[in-house]
Amino acid sequence: MAVxxxxxxxxxxxxxxxxxxxxxxxxxxxxxxxxxxxAHGAPAWKSEGCCxxxxxxLEDRSSDSDYADSVELQPELKRLKLRKNNWSSESYRFDEVxxxxxxxxxxxxxxxxxxxxxxxxxxxxxxxxxxxxxxxxTYTVGSLGRDDPSERGIMxxxxxxxxxxxxxxxxxxxxxxxQLYMESIQDLLAPEKTNIxxxxxxKTGEVSLPGASVVRVKDxxxxxxxxxIGEANRHAANTKLNTESSRSHAILMVxxxxxxQENAVDEMISQEKASRADLPGRNSVPIVRRSKLLIVxxxxxxxxxxSGSEGHLLEEAKFINLSLSSxxxxxxxxxxxxxxxxxxxxxxTRLLRDSFGGSARTSLIITIGPSARHYAETTSTIMxxxxxxxxxxxxxxxxxxxxxxxxxxxxxxxxxxxAQMERQQKLLDSNKFELERQLRECQDSFSxxxxxxISRSEVVVSPRNHxxxxxxxxxxxxxxxxxEGQYSFGVGFKDLLDELNRRKxxxxxxxxxxxxxxxxxxxxxxxxxxxxxxxKVLADTTQMYEEKIAKLIKQLEEEHDRGENAEEQxxxxxxxxxxxxxxxxxxxxxxxxxxxxxxxxYSDV
Length: 605
Ligand SMILES: Nc1ncnc2c1ncn2[C@@H]1O[C@H](COP(=O)(O)OP(=O)(O)OP(=O)(O)O)[C@@H](O)[C@H]1O
What we know:
The protein is of the alpha+beta class.
């Protein structure tokens, strides 16, 4: 089975699709690479075409005009027949034929909603209304429905859908509203901006209007206000055909920028990463889809000779016809898959170059009236719609890495981390202060403990001296009683014992204090460990103090041993003293006995 793919698009947009990937890679490697991946499954959509029959107005009624005079609407068959001399059997098929009673909501659902959905998915889209003056293009497309929301047209309903399907936190919806009047583009949101130049990117084929204002839409009310401003600024000139006729093409441009859900591009990224080693990490670079929706309310097509325009109005009509016929030629060329699409002939076709045919999903609504007087216009409108429906669009996604938002994200992270670091630095400073305070306390405690130990050793030394003095005191008696090499004690022994007990208690207290200091140092050590910055300082300090403590403990133990020795010596001395006292007593008794015996002897003599 042979399969033919018809690639349509205004000039250069097709060549963009058909340009070898590597040639374009030079310019925007990542965006192009992504669109290359998308291109594998790029959907092809036929341009949609619907026909809307405007309800009969007062003029139609007064002239007794009816559709039966010119066309036969067959909505159930999605067809209509044109009345020729006799009713021809030829009928024209549309994607939908709306009768006079069709609601604005139904028209939107069929004509514009699928395009809006595609735009929300990242494809460009265009909805365009074409028809003779006064047949209801502006009503269908641009009605604000101020008094009755059911009368809201495609522009309002499209934005309603877009706003409700985008998240302001991640996505942006922006609009430009312009009119093309006598080959001059004017900003309808800032009417002082006229003759805005069209810019075409030679590499991507993208059309833009750098001079036009682009307003970020906050909500539907905001958009309604913008539309109202645009409507007030839209130039309208009365013609003999319709007193409220728009003599310009109104173009609403909606720019959507959406953050892509991660899983939606997983496969695509992994394929791309496999071919590009230098591509940043999957989760590190957000991806955005940019799409553009154009809603175009074309100026009425009319035959100059019939409009009865003169002077300036005639000039207007000529410009309108120039742009519409140029659009018609482009559509014919696209429908015939012609190699040359004459987009340069008018600003309208230059402006629509990337939006009708080619890579955008498009939908056209043609509007017709019942008057047989305008049979020729009705016929040409129907033929225009039929040709436009032959165009096949190869739509493509425009997806790229969002380095801008990545940059913002990273900046935020840096800010966050800086603030966190500052907080931690403050905490460290306060910890440092606290630790320094604790260290000072420890140092004071140690000095105190050291001082205490020194005085304690003095206390230990002084009783020894005291004992020695006592021994010295007893020395003569001992020699007298026990001979050389022995000691004897004098009075003050009890005081000495008390002193030793006090020193023992004091020694115990010192023990406790040292234990507390050790605990405090341990605590300080824990603190210090938590703070890596001071860990080493603390470790050194701790080691130093541990050594000091060990030294002090050793001193204390030595003193304790000395105290115990002294105690033992004291016990021994106590025994010796008791014995010495006994000896002294015996000595005294002996002396006394001798003196009595001597006295007796004297008395006996
Ligand atoms: N479907 C409709 N239901 C009710 N009224 C409609 C409908 N279509 C058009 N009208 C009315 O017909 C009149 C002409 O419509 P409108 O101005 O939209 O035509 P137009 O094609 O935009 O004309 P022009 O090309 O001159 O701007 C308006 O008063 C409008 O309210």
